[in-house]
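REVIEWER CHECKLIST
Item 1: Sequence provided? yes
Item 2: Single chain? yes
Item 3: Sequence as submitted:
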Amino acid sequence: MKLKSLAARLAFAFASVAAAATPAWAADWVVGANIGNVPWEFQDASGKFVGFEIDLVNEVAKRAGKTVQIENIPFNGLFPAVQSNRIQIAISSITITPKRLETLAFAQPYYDSDQALTVTKAAKINKLDDLAGKTVGVDTASTGDIYATENTAKLKIAKISRYEGLAPAMLDLASGRIDGYISDIPALEYYIKDKPQYRIAARIPTAERYSFMFAKTFPDAAKVNDILTTLKKEGYLASIHKKWFGSTPPETSSTVKVMDVPKL
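Item 4: Structure as written out by the authors:
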């Protein structure tokens, strides 16, 4: 009788540990996002995750009949997180590039963009050539990082400082720890619109397009793409563009125009 009671107690204990280790709720799609990437994904005053891509991924999930859990992951960590299936979808104004398409997949693009160089209002930097001998900030593994790295010798950049998000880079720019910051122009324009201490010194034409990123084996890839097509045709994407950027996207942009799924 004592042995039986002990066995029962042990069984209960193991069951309790297993229950504690198992999440009470698991979403259909875990979505990785670099929170702090305004206006794409960030926290509002209440701590809620908001932004253009938060609105978009939630709408896509709703129409697909899927539940979503947003997980905050630094930009550079999104790529291995998708490849390891830790997350199903990554968002964070991720540019579609041939190199990324070698190992990952994207839905059709939904935003056209370029890079930009931001400096302080007082800085004597008015063009890219003025970066000679200067320290430039970028987001780790971003297209801004790629651009600065590839053009270090040409522009005579003295040093590249890498960050995990826009906010810490802009704080270092304000304090003089870096001389300029290269990142996506829509995020920079949104961030500095009420901060007169900053200005955009140069637009860098890179003809980038953003979309959802996922593993090549993601089973809902076609469904996601079909829903994006519907959202473009219905004007939903144009409406959230107006909400977050204050302007109507051009009819020829990937925010409005239905596009093919990117391929190598």
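Item 5: Key structural point noted by reviewer: The two ends are 69 Å apart (CA to CA).
Item 6: Recommendation: ____
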